[in-house]
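re: that complex we talked abt at group meeting.

here r the seqs, copy pasted straight from the sheet so there may be weird spacing, ignore it
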Amino acid sequence: MEPILEYQTPQACVFVPSPPSMRSDEVLKTQDKLNITACFFTVCHVARVEHPATKLMDDWWYFQRLKKIWHEERGATSSISRIATCPAYQSIIAMGPAAFPHIFRQLESEGDEPDMWFWALKALAQGYDPVPESDRGDFRAMAQAWLKWGRKRYAW
Amino acid sequence: MPGSWDPRDFPDLKESEYSVKSRRTGRYNCIAWAADDVSRYWWPDLQHQVFWPSSAPREETLIAFQLAYGSIGYRPCNDGTLEDGIEKVAIFVDEDGPTHAAWQKPEGTWSSKMGPFEDIDHQRLDLMTGPPGRAYGKPRAYMSRPRQPRRSPEL
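got the structure back, here u go
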């Protein structure tokens, strides 16, 4: 049975200025105050608010960093168990379902040369595997099966 | 042209000792390449995600790899000496188990797929040693069968 997973959609980043501090000058008239405050508003504390899209971007860079480290860690091994137990690969799995859109985006970008993301995907999908038995080992077919599965559940 | 792997992983595999014969690809691995199958990745992974012959156990042991090659007609033999009309594979093992396989070409050179990198031709098998967990260790078993026309094109 397939697990039920959250659907995640990237959204725009939002920047919200912190409450401005205005130089008070009770002598000035209202219009003057407005003109002056336009100059003296201090918006030096432009706060980056925690937002789903912000987190998505942070996760993407974190994912890319882990991918680079993983490639260095695995070297020229063919062993899937060694590939999958590299610390950086395990860190990607440890991201939990948040890793799904990043892996799918990465997998899609790899085209005809998909990398070994299948172990992580199966682990994150709690053991579910959409790849038919006859396609096991055919990385291109495996990537297509996973991307088809992913598109029904995630946006990336 | 040097291969794409980190040369520190294979300090004995100097550029003069090998020639790159394919482009870089991760779609098949050394075990598949030695089995003349570039359409899929061979490994006895416990998640059953990639191909492994059904007649061989899914375990990272030398016997499992020998049985895998046995499924396509290979039988154990004594060494990697070139014999007329015979093709051979060498199975490499390190302290943690099987790591690699190389296939012997008709002229006696060996052909290896270097993990997710290129295929190479190399004269010697003892060049694959290096740092533990990074290189392939040593050839521990040899298998042979009557030479067959190679189906897999060099990419």
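couple things i noticed - Residues 76 and 83 of chain A are 10 Å apart (CA to CA). The radius of gyration of chain A is 24 Å.
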